[in-house]
Amino acid sequence: MVQRGYVTEVGDKFVKVRIERQSACGGNCASCLGCPAEAKIIECPYRGKLVKGDRVELVMEDKRFFKNVFWGYGLPTVFLIAGAALGFAIFKKEGASVLGAVLGLALGLTLTRLVFKRRSTEIVAVLADKIR
Asked: Under CATH, what is the fold of the domain 2-60+122-130?
């Protein structure tokens, strides 16, 4: 995964990068007002020497990206299905299955939030001109 942006602030270990959010269609949403694409500022570690205004690429390894996708989507889905199955197995009613699914999803999302608070997403800012 690679995203381009501009350095807005440089610290000792981290840099703040302003990125333009891209639309799903890949177009320039600001010109057609088709969907809200606002700039976002993120803080991440960096490699090399960066100064304010440098154009950078935010890089994440593919392996890390797919692990994050699993934790972000897979874990809540597993808990949703398990909650639905458990609710139905215990009470033998569809309403209990739905309630179990909702509770399972809530638990899965809570665990996912805890996982992401404790782990680094491992996005690194690298000077764009020195890449490749």
From this structure: OB fold (Dihydrolipoamide Acetyltransferase, E2P) (2.40.50)
